Amino acid sequence: MSATVDALRTPGVAAPTGLLHRGWRRVLRRPASLVGGAVVLAFVAMALGAPWIARVDPAAADWKQIRKAPSVAHPFGTDDLGRDNFARVVWGSRVSMQAGVFSIVLAISIGVPLGLVAGYYRGALDQIVMRLTDAWLAFPFLILAIGLVTIMGPSLTNATVAIGLGATPTYIRLTRGLVLATAAEDYVHGARALGAGDARLMARHILPNIFSSLLVQATVSVPIAIIAEAVLSFLGLGVQPPTPSWGTMLNAAQQFLESAPWMAWWPGLAIFVLALSFNLAGDGLRDLLDPKDY
Amino acid sequence: MAEFLIRRVAISIVTLIVISVIVFTGVRMIPGDPARVMAGTDADAAGLEEIRAKYGLNDPIPVQYARWAALALQGDLGRSIRTRDPVMATVAKKLPITVELACLSVLIALALAIPAGVLAAVRRNTMWDVLASGASLCGVSIPNFWLGIMLILFFAVRLGWLPASGFVPLWESPLGNLQRMVMPAFVLGTALAAVLMRQTRNSMIGVLGADYIRTAYSKGLAGRAVIFRHAIRNSLIPVVTILGLQAGALMSGAVVTEQIFVVPGFGRLIVEAVFTRDYPVVQGVVLITASSYVLINLLVDVSYSLLDPRIRIGGAP
């Protein structure tokens, strides 16, 4: 019997090459998305290769170089402690990527199973999960994160957890909605009639079909999480000094806007470019994966 | 209709109860003695005992929750550790400032988003559409606190046109108030405008394809009349819902914006409370924010269903 169930093809899991080819052609028609994707990859490379890209120690203070304007030696200038802003922006990408990606991985790993179970079994379980989700959603993202960081104490890990928990209800809602629609499909009924159990139906037939929508949502959530981490660090509730982070850099820059405006330019520009690139790449991905167009 | 209202109100009440449980549990998750947490580190034994007696901290947890919830319903959210003022009075003093900021930013957002969204939809796939959609994408991606810093840098430091920060009450000097509120309101408004513009564009595109618009055209109405009299009105209904859902994002945005522009509102209150470990204030602010969000969305849903009968027939989700 299980061989028969296996034999049931799950649509969308392995798209025929024709569809992939058509999707790729469509992405090529959106050069902005391609550029966005390339910039995101460049930031990933920057985060991974930080020690090789920035040869200067980002935490090394130099009292003779306090608040120096951009120059050949310090292309992004120096900060109030004489540290090299370029090195700090490069190293800061690690913090941003880490917080942005891990928080959303956390949100997905809590939200998707809860939404899956609620949407699949429905009934009382669904009601409990959804009322909890409604309450959870009522806490504005940042207020919830601030509340959680107050309880757990400020640090990068806690900020990441707080952002992840703040993003979780969106995934519960989205997954539940997608499961409700997918569970009514003929191929799910077919698999059930052939004897597939609940766990198998969810893992092999429903989850693969809602994967692309979840992936698209993730590309929307990561830039929001990156900005949220910068905000928490800016407020002093995220990364603690001397670890370089774009948010803490902007916090320091705020006090020297008149004498050293360059301190504010680069970290903010980095957040903006990274978030914009994620959003552009996400738009392309949505085009590529949107099943409505096939 | 009555069934829809009862169902919607019942869901909101359940949500509010769950919120209160989360906030109540959250404060009790802070490591250490809750009486010490509520009274502050400098409280003496008598002060601690008073707190324990008032909040019944020796009672079983469900009894404690019921008592706390009853006090909260009467507007008693405890006293600030720092100032000793009742939390409710502190909030009542700060809230109008944030409400003013929020209203101004919504006005700015609507003034930017609706014309841009309508133009993008009417001139779909033209340069206007690309420009409006690009601006919206930038609005979503730009960190609002950085935008705030850049505006200060340009308009206050470089040009000297506007004061960099601070606050003057509206009744003391309306002009001074506006001069200080325009930058924070713009910062808060741009992110909202980006979301609203996308929604306006999408919903306008949907409406422009509807049969009644074709009818309006075919009976000889001019293009402008069709768009202004028929299309815009109908396409704005979903925009109102999004505006309600964005109330939370507006609150989050206010926290950062008030911090940058030193506006002494609700958002700045919560950050100060976190740093001074003023737990009753943190608890009160979080509870009030989440409850307001539920109530705002209840109001939006109810008014929405009164305006558009199709929604009640569909029932609540």
Care to describe what's here?
The complex is a heterodimer of chains A (294) and B (317). Chain A is mainly α and 294 residues long. Helices cover 73% and strands 0% of the residues of chain A. Chain A contains twelve helices and no strands. Chain B is built from 14 helices and no strands. Chain B is flat. Chain B starts with a helix and ends with a helix. The interface between A and B is large, with 44 and 47 residues.
Work out the number of β strands of chain B. 0
Identify the overall geometry of chain A: elongated
Helix/strand/pairing class of chain B, anyone?
A: mainly alpha
Major sheet summary line of chain A: none
**Regions with little confidence, pLDDT below 50 for 5+ residues of chain A:** 1-14
- Sequence of secondary-structure elements of chain B: HHHHHHHHHHHHHH
